[in-house]
Amino acid sequence: MDSPAQSWHLQDGVTYLNHGSFGPSPEPVLAARWEWIDRLESEPMDFLVRQLAGHLDAATDRLGKFVGCSGDNLIFVPNATAGMNIAATNIPLSEGDEVLLTDHEYGAVVRIWGQACQQAGAKTVLARLPLPLTNRGDVVEAVFERVTPRTKVIVISHVTSQTAVCLPVQEVCERAREQGITTVVDGPHAVAMSCERIDTIPCDFYAASCHKWLSAPLGTGFLYVRSRHKQGLKPTMWSWGKSLTGAAPSWKDEFHWPGTFDPTGYLSVPAAIDFLESFGVQKFRDVTHGLAQQARAKLQTYGDGSTLSADSPDWYGSMVSVPFPDETEQATFPGDMHPLQAWLWEKHRIEVPIIRWKEQTLLRVSCHLYTEPEHLDQLFTALDEWVNIDQ
Ligand SMILES: Cc1ncc(COP(=O)(O)O)c(C=O)c1O
Predict the structure, then answer these.
(1) What is the CB < 6 Å shell around ligand 1?
(2) Residue 149, class by beta-carbon neighbours within 10 Å (0-12 exposed, 13-18 middle, 19+ buried)?
(3) Which of 48, 93, 260, 273 is most buried (most C-beta within 10 Å)?
(4) In this structure, are residues 284 and 278 in contact, taking their beta carbons and an 8 Å threshold?
């Protein structure tokens, strides 16, 4: 593949630096999806009743090979949020139990566990990670400092949202398993971006989205479930609970027929894997990390040079968050958009999230195969203009 950038049909005039929130699909993935839609729409009865279960099994097998686990341990879900809800519904909590999360977790994930704890009379506990992140052992220690005999679950991002850092989930899950603590990894950004495979992370659940860095169709995600939790795993929405084909029962039946739905996004996930593999997955990581590194170096110059982590692919991949000098005490996505984010969009048609996190303002840049150094320059030129505006 010579120029993968040509494979995306992004809107003219827009500088899209937010693949990390919503990753558009390249042309071959859209084409594969249209093919699946054609097959479905030309004979829905045959497709949904006789064929679908087999196609979904083939697609989870392919996805399992890509992320490093057996397809028998994977179910498709619409997004990481849905996967996280299934995990939270199925891990029994009692009064007084504690669910430990880091202070870098995604807002919706914190809320899911807050709700689960509230129902059970349990509570969430936050581990504050040292900043900047430079040593994996220190991060693991910061998590385990907050473990008590009541800790039942640890929830940790593989790659965080606001801060865009890679966390040592492997070490955290290993130590948690030794202590009999259930682990749930929140991994939507790690799919394709991280080279750490699920089979090296001894977690109980791993929730992820394929519509971020893998660039599969929007509405595609998965939940990895450790074998011992598969049988009897409850869905968050009840349906028939059995295959329409009359095939032998499987634990996936509760999830892979949620009622009539459009499965073509899930079935196009293998096409997204093919696309990335044809470019080279490691090459994708190297190229996009190089761009993120350039972005980081320049963004640092706006403030006092502080960063959230060491400058290494061990700590950030295709996406980087950098503190930006700003006093605005404004909430951001979802809800009020930061004035700088709104201005970048309205004046320059640049899509880049600006996030208020722990009294800092972070500017997060995502780089994918369509990102060119000129796109970063457009951002920097706009930021130069912003800092010179008398505000
Ligand atoms: C770390 C993290 N977890 C979970 C999610 C939720 O992902 P989705 O909206 O695909 O469910 C996000 C979304 O950006 C995220 O960044």
Answers:
(1) 21, 79-81, 106, 108-109, 157, 160-161, 186, 188-189, 209, 221
(2) exposed
(3) 273
(4) no
Ligand 1 centre to CA of 381 (Å) is: 30
Rounded to the nearest angstrom, the distance between the alpha carbon of 105 and the centre of ligand 1 is 10
One DSSP character per residue, 202-226 reads --SEEEEESSSTT-PPTT-EEEEE-
Is residue 287 pLDDT above 90, yes or no? yes
**Which of 167, 186, 316 gets mutated to test ligand 1 (max ligand atoms within 8 A of its CB)?**
186
Q: Is the model's pLDDT at 2 over the cut of 80?
A: no
Ligand 1 atom nearest to CA at 209: 10
- Nearest-CA residue for atom 10 of ligand 1: 79
Tell me the average pLDDT across 306-328. Answer: 95
pLDDT tens string 116-161: 999 999 999 999 999 999 999 999 999 999 999 999 999 999 999 9
- Return the pLDDT at 106: 98
> Quick one: 95 exposed, middle or buried, by C-beta within 10 A (0-12, 13-18, 19+)?
exposed
Domains of the chain: 4-17+280-388 (3.90.1150.10), 30-275 (3.40.640.10)
Predicted TM-score of the model (pTM): 0.97
Best CA proximity match to 67, nearest among 227, 169, 168, 206: 206
Question: Rounded mean pLDDT of 321-329?
Answer: 89
Whose Cα sits closest to atom 13 in ligand 1?
21
